[in-house]
Amino acid sequence: MNRHPLVGILVTSKALKAAIGSHASTEPNLHLVAARAEGVLAFYFSLRGVSLRKCQVRGWLHDQSGKWCREVFRLPDVVYVRRSTPRSGFLPRFNKLLRRVIPLNEPNQLFKWTTHTALLGYKDTAAMLPHAVLYHHASNLLSMLARYPSVYVKPDRGSGGKGIVRIWQDGVRRFWWQATTGDRGMLSLTEEQLRVQMEEWASSKSLIIQQEIPVLRIDGRRTDIRVVMQKDDKAQWQLYAYFRVGPQRSLVSNVDQGGEKMSVVEALRHIGMRKDRCREKEQRVHQAALVIGNRLQQSFGRMGEIGVDLALDRNYRVWIIEANARPGKSVHGNHDDLEIRFRRPFQYAKYLWCNKAWRNSRR
């Protein structure tokens, strides 16, 4: 058997167009370079380029000079999905395609609420979850505010730290509303104004209300921890974690929203923790992520990589914020580390292809 599968990297049409015009140090280019280093032929494609009747795909890859070129391929052996599930007429084509290939990840979204309810079903992960409820009407928001000093309200299908609001009560009938943009998004509202604001917001999307976690701060700035979990050529999880430190007065720590990255040890040393204790906390974070990753697989099926967002509170307790089935990869950092991170999906693709573990296993 050919031990080097043909791997298609599925993205949106918009992302494909951006990839073709991208420079060398972007994620699409680094993926193709990493695939070649693993002896794997990989190409980028969108659903528009798929003909299931002809069993063909129009895809893009690098030619020998490193420039992008288009070719027609047979259906790939493994598909590495780097886009969300389509909501349009492309959904049937998407589902049929994934039934005819080996998906690197099962096609799931890990939306915030489905992830929360799944992890709530296991004692070990339930203990790490903040209290959260779906928003139905202003009454359950007021009930959460009566129980906690402040809450976060998030779109169920949001990403990148966008569209998040922090709400707290100041006095008997006054509420403060702070949007992701910081002071620029600060409003003082009466209870009636809060009800109107929430009803307008909730009319277009599903919202989640979550207790605010008193997260560890560095120089007064909020933090969280991103843990990227990837399977290797033996289908074993490999992890790398880093702190994200948000801008001053920001509600979130996402890098897309101006956050900065620090290693776990560097961040904890910055607040005065001894180096040996820093290593202990880092290990605890890794252990928590492994538990979460395995529980997510039990609930949603096999996964090749996951992004898990955690937080440490001021007592160093680990909390789960959310998970992402398609975590972004930083294109900055140590060259050797970058190479490993970009090569792992193709190592795992070879494992799936050679072992056919996808037929009857969640590995």
Q: What labels would you give this structure?
A:
single chain, 363 residues, alpha+beta, six-stranded antiparallel β-sheet, 10 helices
Task: Explain this structure.
The protein has 363 residues and is of the alpha+beta class. It contains ten helices and 19 strands. It has helices spanning 13-20, 27-37, 91-100, 112-120, 123-126, 138-147, 191-202, 264-270, 275-300, 335-355; strands at residues 6-10, 41-45, 50-51, 56-62, 68-74, 78-81, 102-103, 132-134, 150-155, 165-169, 174-179, 186-190, 207-211, 217-218, 221-231, 237-245, 260-263, 305-312, 318-324. It has a six-stranded antiparallel β-sheet, with helices on both faces. Strands 14, 15, 16, 17, 18 and 19 form a six-stranded antiparallel β-sheet that branches. The protein has a four-stranded parallel β-sheet with strand order 2-1-6-7, sandwiched between helices. Helix 2 packs across helix 10 (335-355). The longest helix is centred in the C-terminal third of the chain and has 26 residues, at 275-300. It starts with 5 loop residues before the first strand and ends in an 8-residue tail after the last helix.
In short:
By secondary structure, the chain is an alpha+beta fold.
Fold blueprint:
Elements: E1 6-10, H1 13-20, H2 27-37, E2 41-45, E3 50-51, E4 56-62, E5 68-74, E6 78-81, H3 91-100, E7 102-103, H4 112-120, H5 123-126, E8 132-134, H6 138-147, E9 150-155, E10 165-169, E11 174-179, E12 186-190, H7 191-202, E13 207-211, E14 217-218, E15 221-231, E16 237-245, E17 260-263, H8 264-270, H9 275-300, E18 305-312, E19 318-324, H10 335-355
Parallel strand pairs: 1-2, 1-6, 6-7
Antiparallel strand pairs: 3-4, 4-5, 8-13, 9-10, 9-13, 10-11, 11-12, 14-15, 15-16, 15-18, 16-17, 18-19
